[in-house]
């Protein structure tokens, strides 16, 4: 946070603010994490890949809840109509034909039991704490900060562009079919990030608000990073799986 | 959680419930964590010891807030009068002559800057998320669950009894003086844990409430465990310190 902490002291133009936000992504987005590097290099074990899908499900499943919280706090119908698309993307028309269902298909395609994944009870506690922090953030911080915390989507087309070809090329048990989640995501994420970025550039009109926006994006990068830290520690082969978490060895 | 998940299905006597709670401690308390083993064996680097004190400060500093939340939700004046002692222990008479101040003394005694520690800005995000989850738990769950989540204090005299002699014997830069935090803690923790255990045994009168109490203690063990997971991953020597966190190499 140090390097961005004073960026907004004297106030930034909208395009300067955008530049700072993009620098945060370039320095802190989780495509820089060693776990992601291992994934795209083909080095993950099947257990690591399963643990990733299982834990990431907790994140996916909370996205429409944090977006509903943002909706609930938004007073502008036009904003709500736009933001609502995010919920529709993840929940689909019946709850189980959108992004969450497609993530579940990835998890089951990797050999996990659907009910176990949906129960989230074998996820790492650290995943739950990080995801809970994200939901709390969108509940308790200003709507501007909540919107800004979504801006990691500026960078998600890049990580998906690295992840999908590598998963198909490097892991023989991964098929295009189970990666259906990722197909619409770059388009959706670009649409959503463009809207959120324009909103932030329009509404972060004081140095204090600009700093809050910067801190919100740093916070969100920390959430994603901490999830991979926990995965790497638990499943990196040293036997550091915490008590009660997913452990295929225990059957 | 598996092994305790069905313990309360048919209802437990108060003493059976106590036995289950003690079993959770025997299986999941953080004296079993590899980071604690390294600490008592003398294997921690000075950076690891500093990182532990710095991150643990975030936990210490939230304790009186989570206890205040429990106080705010308690309707019985006698309960509040008893529970209030916990806040007094940590805040002291003026905010800076109780347990938090003594923890700060430990941190500065290990060479850290007091203002940096108090700002919490170099703590691991995972620490913040775990501590935040604890505060949220005491805010959002039932008062019975909030009380039950404090029951890790049943086990804290044991870990302090392992930690203090080992820190003095194995690390030449650790003096009795900087360990002042721990001197009153076993007595305070025993008094507090006895009260909380009696409360839980009296009020967890249905299988559902007993299960909630069990889950609350498991949750709290997960909080403490996840904090050591994050420390071990970040400062275990492999260079996994997340962006923005305490890093003495960066000066």
Description:
Two copies of one chain form a homodimer. The first copy, chain A, is mainly α and 251 residues long. Chain A has one domain: Heme oxygenase-like (Heme Oxygenase, Chain A). Helix content of chain A is 69%, strand content 0%. Chain A is built from twelve helices and no strands. In chain A, helix 8 packs antiparallel against helix 12. Chain A is globular and about 55 Å long. The N and C termini of chain A lie far apart (42 Å). The relative contact order of chain A is 0.19. The mean pLDDT of chain A is 95.
Helix and strand arrangement:
Two copies of one chain form a homodimer.
Chain A: H1 2-5, H2 14-28, H3 34-41, H4 46-73, H5 77-91, H6 99-109, H7 114-119, H8 125-140, H9 143-148, H10 156-170, H11 185-203, H12 207-235
Helix pairs in contact in A: 2-12, 3-10, 4-5, 4-6, 4-8, 4-12, 8-12, 10-11
Catalytic activity (chains A, B): 6-(2-amino-2-carboxyethyl)-7,8-dioxo-1,2,3,4,7,8-hexahydroquinoline-2,4-dicarboxylate + 3 O2 = pyrroloquinoline quinone + 2 H2O2 + 2 H2O + H(+)
Family (chains A, B): Belongs to the PqqC family.
GO molecular function, one term (chains A, B): pyrroloquinoline-quinone synthase activity
């Amino acid at each position: 946070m140090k390097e961005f902490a004073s960026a907004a002291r004297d106030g930034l133009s909208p395009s300067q603010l955008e530049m700072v936000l993009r620098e945060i992504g370039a320095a802190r987005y989780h495509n820089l994490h060693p776990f992601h590097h291992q994934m795209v290099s083909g080095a993950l074990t099947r257990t690591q890949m399963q643990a990733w899908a299982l834990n990431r499900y907790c994140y996916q499943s909370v996205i429409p809840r944090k977006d509903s919280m943002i909706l609930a706090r938004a007073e502008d119908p036009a904003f709500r109509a736009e933001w609502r698309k995010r919920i529709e993307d993840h929940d689909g028309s019946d709850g189980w034909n959108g992004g969450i269902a497609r993530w579940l298909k990835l998890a089951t395609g990797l050999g996990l039991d659907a009910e176990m994944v949906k129960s989230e009870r074998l996820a790492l506690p650290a995943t739950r704490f990080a995801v809970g922090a994200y939901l709390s953030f969108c509940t308790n911080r200003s709507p501007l900060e909540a919107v800004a915390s979504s801006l990691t989507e500026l960078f998600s087309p890049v990580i998906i562009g690295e992840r999908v070809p590598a998963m198909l090329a490097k892991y023989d048990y991964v098929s295009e079919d189970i990666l259906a989640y990722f197909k619409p995501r770059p388009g959706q994420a670009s649409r959503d990030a463009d809207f959120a970025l324009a909103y932030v550039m329009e509404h972060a009109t004081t140095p204090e608000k600009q700093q809050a926006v910067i801190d919100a994006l740093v916070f969100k990068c920390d959430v994603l990073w901490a999830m991979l830290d926990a995965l790497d520690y638990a499943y990196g082969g040293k036997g550091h799986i915490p008590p009660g978490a997913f452990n295929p060895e225990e059957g």
